[in-house]
Amino acid sequence: MDLLNARVHRRTLVQAGAGAVLATFGMRSGVLGASTPVIRFAYFGTAEEHTAYEQLVASFEHVHPEIAIESIALPSGDSTLIPKNEKGSPYQPWLQTSFSGNNAPDVFLLNYRNLGEFTSRGLIEPLGEYMAKSTVFTEEDFYSASINAFRYRTLSGTELGGIPQNASSLAVYFNKDVFDEFGVPYPTTDWTWEEFADVAEKLTVDRDGDGLTGTYGLSIDPALSRFAAFIWGAGGEFVDDPLEPSTLDFESNTAQNGLRYLVSLGQSGRKVTPPEYKTFEETDLSRFLGGRSAMFVHTRRIVPTLRAEATFGWDVAPLPIGSQPANVLHTDAFCLASTSNQKDASWTFIEYANGPEGQAILAATGRTVPSLRSVAESDVFLKGTSVTEKLGFKTLGLPPENAQVFVDNIAISRQLPAIANWPGVEWAFNRSFRQAFYSDGDIPGAITRTLTRADGLLGTPLTTRRNLLFTESSEAEE
Questions:
Q1: Global pTM?
Q2: Whole-number Å distance between alpha carbons of 193 and 183
Q3: Residue 15: which domain range?
Q4: Is the confidence at residue 466, as pLDDT, over 50?
Q5: Rounded to whole angstroms, how far apart are CA atoms 361 and 56?
Q6: Each residue of 63-91: b (16+ CB within 10 Å) or e?
Q7: CB 3.0 to 4.6 Å from 146: which of 205, 371, 374, 423, for a disulfide?
């Protein structure tokens, strides 16, 4: 039976801040009783990602007909993925404001880098006791990196703010057809920074002799969530304490080597990435799908779109290696709102979604790198083989062929800080380094702008560190 077609959908536009949110209320055939709990579940993503979560909700409602799910699906706001004509408010602003009125979800998807914003406001229900009583899974069943990313300190100790659905990381997606066309060997598992840059240069080409680049070797968002991998890969750091940072620290030569390498791929250096104006005309994902970039650095979440829309052969490779292997942890969790009046039913949904069956469903759609070891190391994930035939979909041997890359990445992936003001720090960095990447290549200037914009966000004035920074930056440039 195809549960997606068996469900009766009622779609309404729910006003949320500056935009409208598409809410889907899924009901089985028949009439829900007045006492049936309705759980509002909010999540983000592309249209293909929304479909993945609809499949999860359909399966849950089939197993638990006593609980109904109202899905609130929003665009993530990721400029590398979202089409320019996407309707609706981006997820994070909507989620923040939803708790100010009577519009908050019961269960919501949250990236760990935003955890501090919500725990500091008391909006997240601690899940440690729920986890301890679960008969579906234990903490040891999950990769420790993903579980630990959702721990936060309280007056009484440490709590668990969410149950992670994934243990994702960055990978290099590459267009096999473009590599074959220009006779460039596919990436190896141990390729270096210089080899990566050389491949990107070879695949940045003028296709029709008009003097304009038709295909770029690489698309990558110049954001801290990408730069961090290269800072760590160079052996550097950028905060004084990864868990409780009190100041930014870009002063070491190693940290600046990582910054300098990634900036060198942009318009002030090798020019293997598109100029900034082209990123406003077309998203990185659209460019990759159209064959106008040969490689694209992103997380696992683009796989459902590539499976649905790519007309060429593609696969993934690990990030190139600098001084040491390094990657950035990308993990989202199902969180329970402290304001929910349906906590037990909400936990039932969270437990199912992150149990073996729920994680297998999302893994089969391509959306996640499962945080459950048993699912991540199974054919459901590694080979794209679905065991959920009762949902009406079967997938056998779907790309990426080299999905093992994501499992191997878990051991070398590090988390970014998750304090309340961290999103503001990332904003300061991203705005500053976007100029360096796309325009002037000025690393010391970008660092100074970052420190100025982030001043006070970590609780410690940064002004006193700037004089030393100028000195060491000058030496590093030599």
A1: 0.89
A2: 20
A3: 3-167+331-402
A4: no
A5: 6
A6: eeeebbbbbbbbbbbbebbbeeebebbbb
A7: 371
Looking at the fold, whether 74 and 123 belong to one and the same domain comes out as: yes
Calculate the alpha carbon distances from 225 to 8, 81, 151, 368, 436 in Å: 40, 15, 20, 18, 16
Q: Do 242 and 429 touch, CB atoms closer than 8 A?
A: no
In this predicted structure, the answer to whether residue 21 has a pLDDT above a threshold of 70 is no
Domain contains 410: no
- On whether both 123 and 241 belong to a single domain, the answer is no
Which burial class, exposed, middle or buried, applies to 429 when counting CB atoms under 10 A from its CB (0-12, 13-18, 19+)?
buried
pLDDT of residue 33: 60
Q: Which of 55, 63, 56, 67 is nearest to 27 (CA)?
A: 67
Instruction: Give the number of domains in the chain.
Output: 2
Residues 189 and 337 in one domain: no
Residue 338 sits in the same domain as residue 323: no
Q: Beta strand 327-328 with 314-317: parallel, antiparallel or unpaired?
A: unpaired
Cis peptide before 242 (omega within 30 of 0): no
188 in the same domain as 51: no
- Kindly report the CATH number assigned to the domain that includes residue 449: 3.40.190.10
User: pLDDT, tens digit, for every residue of 57-84?
Assistant: 999 999 999 999 999 999 988 888 876 5
d(CA 383, CA 356): 17
Mean pLDDT of 215-224: 98
pLDDT at 203: 98
Indicate whether 214 and 239 sit together in one domain: yes
- 473/251: higher pLDDT: 251
For residue 467, count other CB atoms closer than 10 A to its CB.
8
**Size of the chain, expressed as the number of residues it contains:** 478
411 in any annotated domain: no
Instruction: Provide the 3-class DSSP secondary structure of residue 298.
Output: strand
pLDDT of residue 387: 43
pLDDT > 90: percent of the chain: 78
| Mean pLDDT of all residues in 225-229 | 98
